[in-house]
Amino acid sequence: MKLRDTLHLSLKTVASYRTRSLLIVLAMALGVAAVVVLTALGDGARRYVVGQFSSIGTNLIVVLPGRAETSGGFPGAALGQTPRDLTLADARALGHLPQVRRYAPLNVGVAELAAASRLREVTVLGSTADLLPVRHMRLAQGSFLAQERGAERSAQIILGAQLVREFFPQGNAVGQRVRLGDRRFLVSGVLAPQGESMGFNSDEIVIIPIGYAQALFNTSSLFRILVETKSRGDLASAKDAILDILKQRHDGEEDVTVITQDAVLATFDRILRALTLGVAGIAAISLAVAGILVMNVMLVAVSQRTSEIGLLKAIGAPSADVHRLFLAEALWLSLAGGMTGFALGHFGSLLIRIAYPQLPAWPPVWASFAGVGVAFATGLLASLLPAARAARLDPVRALGGK
Amino acid sequence: MICLTTISRVFQMGEQDVRALSKVNLEITSGDYVSIMGPSGSGKSTLLNIIGLLDRPDSGRYELDGRDVTGLSETERARVRREKIGFVFQSFHLVPRLTAAENIELPLILDGVAPAERRARVNEALQGFNLGDRAGHRPPELSGGQRQRVAIARATILRPTALLADEPTGNLDHRIGAEVMALLERLHNTGTTLIVVTHDRELGARAHRHIAMRDGEIVADEK
Predict the structure, then answer these.
(1) Nearest to B109 among A1, A16, A396 (CB)
(2) Mutation site, A18, A308, A315, A402, interface B, largest B CB count within 10 A
(3) Among A182-191, A365-374, B72-81, which stretch is predicted with the lowest mean pLDDT?
(4) Largest Cα–Cα distance in chain A?
């Protein structure tokens, strides 16, 4: 029997048992659609989280003074040198790199804040206007540190949300004068409440121009330089460029450490990918169930069509032909089920995207193909037993309907 | 030429062994017209099934057209059935979801005949068996006589050397049964060996050779 005829004859059979075939195709389709939709959801969630992460600074590079790794004898030590400090001039040099969108030098210290006859110790950040966008902070009131050059001179102070609640319960903080250490500052803005982030509670900090901070803490070195690159793709080259430029400026000494936020994101990415795979696995179980349904229905078909199988053998069909006919039936059913499920799954994902536009629920390509592939495989596997049973039937008994 | 030597076939019915055929020797020359008669359980259908290579004897030797077919593999037996044997059954055994034409076409498909030639031969058969206007009908829409004509057309489409009929008129009324027998005899007249199993005496008498069976043995064999 020719392959073409096998396929044609089995297709005719599948088409003639309409209800039975529709049910199997439906079960298969739902299984495949479940795989497609669930992976679309999982992958959509992953992309959403990655996107959110990117928005709070995946393009962020943190430069800190000193080397974090242990290496051989520090060459400068013999000459009585210590690692050089990071300076404002270093920070400005980084600002000229082509990959860098903006940067913010950072000094941190603790000082006493006094206002409205209240007093407490606060964490002081000294920085520039770009700290706000670099750290993705938001203001509740007023304005941030002034942008123009030399603005470090003006005695502005930005208060954290918690501090405003404590010092100015009426909320009229902007425009008030406060004392920080031994200097007076004018409150120009209030941070929106944001809670803990990057190691300190930003609700309990004050931000002042970097020049004042350096004067306050009597230092010319920086605690960190935060650098934001133009895109995530620039991270690696920016990291190298930063190391290069600082090495040059530090007499050939690589005495800074450069950290990217990318590592954290990569971890999240991996976790969510694993989650998607897990969900896909669960959905694949429904495919396995569909496979068992196919097996059942095919077994019933074999027993219903026993005398027909007997007849085929009587008119000269070898067992192999009978076997192939039943496999081909399962193949058609799986094919129809897989394709319908594929379409259904993509339609479902489209509906999700329409309902939740912020969730990029695109089914991953691998999931669509895996879904259809698994449907195919289960369909064929499930029909192996019924097909073998049909092929093994004794023609005399089969003709008698036994 | 069909040549059976000491053929035995034993069925197991629960604890008991039932001897359906017991050392049967039989020789049927090509082109003969043979009836096999006997009461139910006499082994006549089993004999027909063994001749038609549907069943295997437990012992003995079967030669078909000079070739020993006793020990052939399942695939080989299917091939011999397809090429040399045509079966006609009491209950027609048509595939209900296929049309008359498609039922007749089945053996050609199994034999790997090209579609164009299949169509030509099926049309020829439809005309030859006076089924031209019934080609597109499914078995449930056909009368008993038409169904058996479709079955005979299917059995003979590959031009077998032997036509084996097991109670071919058992499900038909007398007049239609006679028509079907006439059709089978017409095929016999073109050179096909015709073997008919029946317990209808009148029908059996029409054959040229009459074999009577009882309890798995041939008890009479008259020309």
Answers:
(1) A1
(2) A315
(3) A365-374
(4) 109
The whole-angstrom distance between B114's CA and the closest CA on chain A is: 9
Q: What is the ipTM of this complex?
A: 0.92
Looking at residue B76, its amino acid is E
Residue A401's closest chain B neighbor by CA? Answer: B93
Query: What is the percentage of chain A residues whose pLDDT exceeds 70?
Result: 90
A243-269 as b/e: b if 16+ CB within 10 A: eeebeebbeebebbebebbbeebeeeb
pLDDT of residue A176: 87
Mean pLDDT of chain A: 84
Confidence band of A68 (pLDDT split at 50, 70, 90): low
Question: Domain B2-222 is of which CATH architecture?
Answer: 3-Layer(aba) Sandwich (3.40)
* Domain's final residue, options A203, A238, A260: A260
Same domain, A256 and A280: no
Q: Which residue of B has its CA nearest to A7?
A: B109
Residues A15-40 have pLDDT tens digits of: 988 888 898 899 889 888 988 898 89
Domain boundary among A242, A260, A278: A260
Identify whether the C-beta of residue B89 lies closer than 8 Å to the C-beta of residue B170: no
Please give the residue range of the domain that contains residue A139.
60-260
DSSP-derived 3-state class of residue B113: coil
